[in-house]
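Minutes, project check-in

Agenda point 3 was the complex the collaborators sent over. CS summarized: two entities, 1202 residues total, and the question is how they sit relative to each other. Sequences were read into the notes so everyone works from the same version.
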Amino acid sequence: MKEKILIANRGEIALRIMEACEDLGVDYVVVYTKEDEESLHVRYAKEKYRICDYRDMNDLLAVADESGCTAVHPGYGFLSENFRFARRVVKRSRPLIFIGPSWEAIRDLGNKLFMKKLAKDLGIPVIPGTTEPVYNEIEAELKEEELLEELGSLGVQKPSLLVKAVAGGGGMGIEEVKSLEELRPTFRKIRAYAKRLFGDEGVIIEGKIPVFQHLEVQLLGSKHGEYVHFGTRNCTIQSPYKQKRIEIAPGFSYQETYSFDPKKVEEEIINYSIKLAKAFNYDSVGTWEWLVTPDGKFYLMEVNTRIQVENEISAKISFIENKQVNLIKEQIRVAFGEKLGYSQKDIEFKGTSIEYRLIAEDTKKGFIPLSGTITQISWPELPWLTMRTHVPQDKPYAIPTQFDPNLALAIVYGETFEETKKRGLTLLDQIIIQGITSDGKELKTNISFLKEKTEFLYKFLEA
Amino acid sequence: MQIELYKTLKNLLETATYIRDIKGEDFFGINSLINKISEVYDNFYQYEPSYLEDFVKKTKEQLDILLEQGEKTLTPYEIVKITRHPQRFTLQDILENVYDSYMELGGEGEINIDPAIVCAKAMLVRKVGDEIFFHQVMVIGHEKGHGEEFREGGSAKPWGNEKALRYMKMAETEGIPIHFFIFTPGAYPIEDYPGAAQQIAKNLYYMAKLRVPTISFISEGGSGGAEAIGLADMRLMAEKGYYSVISPEGAAAIEAKISDGRPPRELVEKCAKALKLTAKDNLKFGNIDRIVPEPLLGARRKDYEFFKRLKIELIRATDEVILQTRSIKFLRKYAASKQETENFKYYVNWDLDEDEIEILIENRYKKYRKMTQWAIHENKTLFKSFFDLGHNLSVKFKNEINYKILKQGQKTFKKFLNELTSESTLLLKPVSDPIKTVYNLIVGKKTGPKLLTPSLQDDDIPTYISPLGLEDKTITCPQAEKYGCPDLWVPDLYGEFCGVCPNCGYHFPLEYKWYLNNIFDRNSIRTFNDEIASTNPLEFEGYAEKLKAARKKTGLNSGLISFEAKIGGISLIAIMLIAEFRQGTVGVAEGEKFIRAIELAKLTRRPFLALVHTTGGIRIHEGTLGVVQMPRCTMAVKDYVDEGGLYIVVYDNNSYAGPVASFLGAAPYQFALKSTRLGFAGPRVIRETTGQDVPPDYHSAENALKRGHIQGIWDRRELRKKLFTALLTMGGKNLYYRW
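CS then shared the predicted structure for the full assembly.
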């Protein structure tokens, strides 16, 4: 039977999935909402349906049934890490293929506490802290004492803790605690906040790692028990609200000097990641996020059970038979049950790749995403540059306010880190994004912020 | 002379009208007789006195025959009509004719917090030979007022029952017996503070251990309204009174499934018969203790002989209750004396001392504990019942030893030790601190204090799939228009969402098994007393088939399951009323199971949880046998709570009427899930009684909370967690884990 994929997403990822489908010769259907009518993914697709919301499972499945789809690709964001959606897709009376890991894996790895507990059991290092939600103050204080001592024994100067809502994320419901006296009020505050916002009072307490690099391991598993990795990425440069802005692959530069052996650390975090993936029979693309401290200690932070925005930089530096890979294509192939057809030793890593996220935001005023109309977006045609955008170049584009504010991804490739960095800066000089805000002012972008931060690549940063 | 005749004629006219009202217009040409009397009465002075005399005599004879005939063919529904007739005696008549003096308390006539309830301090005079003795009593009862509108036919409002409770407490303070008089078709079904159901429950709860002798007299005993002042040491009933779970009209409306208008007359009469509501039936069932005889077709306001008789019966009943707390010998002697006349052979002092009060309360508990037990069907072999007896005794023995002797000693020792060590630490600190430091240096790690509080492990919950969640379909949340909820996929809704819309929190109904599988620790449930079955004690037509169908549907023998279970490792005793079995209505079997469960909880010092999946009230097919479950179970509740236990009630779906107005509503801790509708009577009954429609959210959990009925509203998704916290933080000191 010929497969047909419902692309349950928007923006550049929808475009990339469409491209992958065309390469593989698979049919596809796209969906869009009223606000996205001008988006390129709608313009390029032959078969398209308007729905009310990208998060509405009922609408999406109705489209899938109506158009005779056999599979769903959730992209990233929206429903991609919603295990209920994944479960419903495969459990309904007309089941579809979910292009992603099993719903159990999404549920268990997506639950940070559960993942942490499991990782601990497997001997994988995780950030010191509670693995069960804490509900009362007395328990919290005892845990705090224990943790501060543990951090001290790990050599952390002036150790401090983070009090987090179990159900929180993306920088919400987290607060730092430096001393015992602060704990009770902070704990109560976070608990009340968590109850109000997420309906769950559970709170965890974790040690705070003051200086670190944020590394991630790109894995791919198939339904036949094969596992390969596509190296690591370094995503240390983020907005103050913990949102990634510049990513670079590979995760360590071998030209830089470290107080530890970067090759060894890289190998270890990759091996640990695969160990956890195997415990779940993980059979899709996935990212394992790690924190690495200046003295070479590393902790598993979380697992992203989906394709990531920055997947392409890993793809750029990975070569199979001298050809760059396409991770979305690989993801679709394994979802349909195909074998990989290659093994780890066939993957060769060459060069360095940087991704810039171009966003209309005010970097001087709290990184607020801006709304308005893009009047011009243009970039030089360069052999080492790949641009990913859904913004049309031939007519003005109103930025929808309710979605992720990414306008474009610029992916730069070079032989060495120095070369790539230079190319990146050249690009940032030449790229033009112009627009006006709704009150007629010039639209600001984060280009200057990106330029400034390029200098900090591969550096250890303070949180 | 003429005036006398005129008066007599008027009485005869009244009697004739009365006979017509009770027996109907076709009764032996009663209508033409009435016409004849009225004509003579209206044109009284145009007739010759000799004719009149003759006419009166003849008519009287005729009426006597009619009364006799009427009495012979008296049907239960006619008895109901007798009790409701404006000519029937009321509490005011009793106060005037039975008691030797009285003073109304808490208002007279219309100037009253609730004219349907009359309270009075009254005096009874007892003659023994030449001597005269005075007895003080508190009289509390309903007043029908011979049809006065403001009396609401004797339907007590919630604050009327509260008034009754106030004067019960006053009688308790003064140590005088209480005489209750029940003349009510039922309580006035409104939820305004303190709430119909709540107040009845409070009254029952208090009456269970009232420290004075109580006697009740029933003329019209309408269900919950009657129970509000009906839990007494001795219950008398008028020969032409009725005592029933529901009015025959109400029963007919339910049987015919009509939501509006009047049920057919034939059905009403049939129901009156089926409900077995007469004094004779109630005596046979053991729900009352004695019948007070009445004249033909019932006593009316001028039947002075009846009042004389009532006075003797009241004194005799009070005497007996009091003598039961004293020596048996004296009681026998008293009984042998056969008190039938106004001249008493004995004087009995109505004051009780402390020991006698203890015996009084104990007697009361035993009396109600025994009631209706004959109607239980328990499928047991002789061996099994013998084994159970032995088992019960050994459980009792074990727990007594464990908690009353061993733990008590331990507790005292622990207290002593704590006091000793807390003082000595101050002295020892300089000595022990350096040792601790050295110890820490050597071991390298500080030994942190271990937390003793038990915690709730979520993976204790078994994976249970609700049969509702097996279909691949979506349903729309009823509040979608208001809150914009997306449609819900059924497997999600009845799985992880616990039947709750994640967007707006709307609670969908769930089957009872969901609760059993999601609240308690895995495999911790052990049911007991499963074999106790509902029977058909009234031989109510069609009820046996209904029971059979319910048994087949659910695989259960009654609408209540009792079990032992654990939450977060804390062991507890629980019961659950189940909607799938006749709407969770309560009959004899349910009441008995409830009492046995709570008695077990008391014995083993376990917390006691009542989960109400739904309860539709007292099961009408078991009549008064169902109604007396209200006082029975409430007494058990009171006994358990006083022993220092923890009784929690959690309501869901629909909880109405009898059970809410007694053993559920009496709980110190009551919580409702968001989806609960909670109250005394449903909208239809309220409309019929008060003539007014209630708003749709009248019975909502929010309103129940505002009225102070419940202590909180819980979300079904958090039920397990909330219960666990409740177990840890609430309840008395005698729970097994509070040591």
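Noted in discussion: Confidence is low (pLDDT under 50) at residues 445-452 of chain B.
Follow-up: revisit at the next meeting once the mutant set is ready.
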